[in-house]
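Request:
You are asked to prepare a plain-text protein record giving the amino acid sequence and the C-alpha cells, at your earliest convenience.
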Amino acid sequence: MAFVSGFGKVGRSNWISSERAVRGFSKSSREFGVRAIVVRASLDRERIWNKSYQLDELEDKDSTTTALYLNRDGTVDCGSTTGPVPKLASGEWDLDPKNNRFMMKLTRTFEQDTGDYEVKRTYDGEMYMSKDEELINFEGKLILRDFPVGYFKMISASDDLPEEHMRALG
C-alpha cells in the first residue's frame, strides 16, 4: 500500500495530492477507506468553498484521480486527471449542512473521430472531517441516470494546488 505525497506523473497527465491531504488515505484503486479517525461534521458551506480537492472515483474496474476546486458560487473547476483528458469539463456542487449531504454534478466533454460526446455523473454522499478538523472529505455513490455505478471519495488538499494542476478546462 503506497502513500503518496507531492506531485507526480501518472500516465499522460498529472495527479495531485499533498502530504496532509493523503495522510491516512490509500491511493489503492480498490481501497476507499479513511484510515484517520473521522467524525461526522456539521460544517457550513464556508468551510468547504474556495478550496482544492482530490477526487478519487471508482467505476466498474476503472479508477481515476482528478484535481477539483469548489468555488463559492457553487461551480466546480476541474484540473488535471489520471483518466481520459476531457476537451471541456464543468460542474456544480451543493451541501446541506443540516444532514451533511453533499451533491455534485460533473459534465465532461470528450472528442472522438465521430464527434464530441458528454459524460455526466452525479456524486451523492456525506461530508466528514478529521478529528483535528484539518482534513475535510466526502464519500458516497457515483450515479448515472438514477442508478449507482460506483463510488467516490474527495479529500481536501490542505495547500492550494499549483496553477498548472488547476487550469480550468473549457
